[in-house]
Amino acid sequence: MFVTVKYRRGRCLLSDRLRERGYTQTQLADRTGYDKSIISKYVNGTRGMNFDTAKTIAAAINCTIDDLYEWIEYD
Questions:
Q1: Which of 2, 15, 44, 71 has a Cα at 20 to 30 A from 24?
Q2: How crowded is the C-beta side of 70, counted as CA atoms within 13 Å?
Q3: How many Cα neighbours within 13 Å face the side chain of 68?
Q4: Other C-beta atoms within 10 Å of 49: how many?
Q5: Which residues pair with 48 in a beta bridge?
Q6: How far apart are the first and last CA of the chain?
Q7: What is the spatial distance between Cα 61 and Cα 14, in angstroms, rounded to a whole number?
Q8: What is the largest CA-CA distance in the chain?
Q9: Inter-residue contact 46 to 3 (CB < 8 Å)
Q10: Rounded to an integer, what distance in angstroms lies between the CA atom of residue 5 and that of residue 15?
């Protein structure tokens, strides 16, 4: 029998990833073409990223989408 593990996205960790890599929000905006105000909203958790945006940002800062979020296991 297989037990399915499910996850839901938790807190955005973009600010942590930027700090670890020494990038500013402005540098990320320049690297991705996204407006700095939108990057700020992702960092502050007032706006969620869609999958395409998360993939673009992850590639720009050399991490995976999984690295951008806290993942919470549930039944």
A1: 71
A2: 8
A3: 24
A4: 22
A5: none
A6: 16
A7: 10
A8: 49
A9: no
A10: 27
Q: Does pTM surpass 0.85?
A: yes
In angstroms, what CA-CA distances link 62 with 1, 5, 20, 26, 72? 37, 27, 11, 17, 23
CB 69 within 8 Å of CB 12: yes
Secondary structure (3-state) at 50: coil
Residues 6+ apart with CB under 8 A from 13: 67, 68, 69, 70
| Residue tagged 């540098």 (tokens) | 27
Please give the backbone phi and psi of residue 4, each rounded to the nearest 5 degrees, phi first. Answer: -85, 130
Task: Return averaged pLDDT per consecutive 10 residues of the chain, 75 residues in all.
Answer: 88 97 98 97 94 97 96 91
Give rounded-to-5 percent helix, strand, coil for the chain: 50, 15, 30
